[in-house]
Amino acid sequence: MRQNPHHRLLGQTCIVTGANSGIGKEIALSMGRDCANVVVNYITDAAAAEEVANQIEASDAIAKAITFKADVSKEDQVQEMFKTAKQHFGTVDIMVNNAGMQRDAAFHEMTLQQWQQVLDVNLTGQFLCSREATREFLSRGKVDYSCALGKIICVSSVHEVIPWAGHANYAASKGGVMLLMKSMAQELGSKGIRVNSIAPGAIQTPINRDAWETPEALNELLKLIPYKRIGQPADIGAAAVWLATDESDYIHGTTLFIDGGMTLYPGFTTNG
Ligand code: BGC
After folding, report:
1. To test ligand 1's pocket by mutation, which of 123, 158, 198 has the most ligand atoms within 8 angstroms of CB?
2. Distance CA 70, CA 72 (A)
């Protein structure tokens, strides 16, 4: 029998990194709406993270939420986050590696710091959180409320396949996420751990404000999107929840592109 769509994650616990704003915030709220307990990770803006946690617990919701400040690129901080999650909720069932950043620069001007920071957060952060999640899944063992031993969802980008001038650090980090996800999926599938990525296109959030803030910028952006609208965080939130439920139990090692067709080489619509 199909589960109540709003109770699909009842009794499960989810960590969402970078959940104080943008896509991460919407994923956290969506997980909460489907009754998962949520650890709202953040590194800046504690008040915004609190607000997300409050919203999850508001209006007689079943889900509980806590906030936790941790830099995902720091091993000790990630381990503390898992310790706290387990103290509050017993275990972790769903790891959403969302935290990410851009430090854009022309290639010849890119500093080592800009390169390193983006790789540290976007790629090493996903490694550290996934490794900690895997350790918890394996030591906790099977549960009766989910087919999988645990679920890992990597938030990648269309730039795991689309090269991006002026953003070599970002594109390299997301290309890395693609093979990190697939390698984890290949290695961990036999243990019952389900690993997938979501690759958002242009989603209207603070990270890409320049691309949608003015009508001219938005018009340029829409030339890259065959479906002719900018994405919304809810487009990603709904998919992330679904990827965490048993409805998607046979989906493993896949990147789900949610991009309005941005990866369809839109330049070829009228050319080539
Ligand atoms: C980037 C955004 C960009 C989008 C499409 C995302 O991964 O963070 O800044 O608008 O890709 O290019």
Report:
1. 158
2. 6
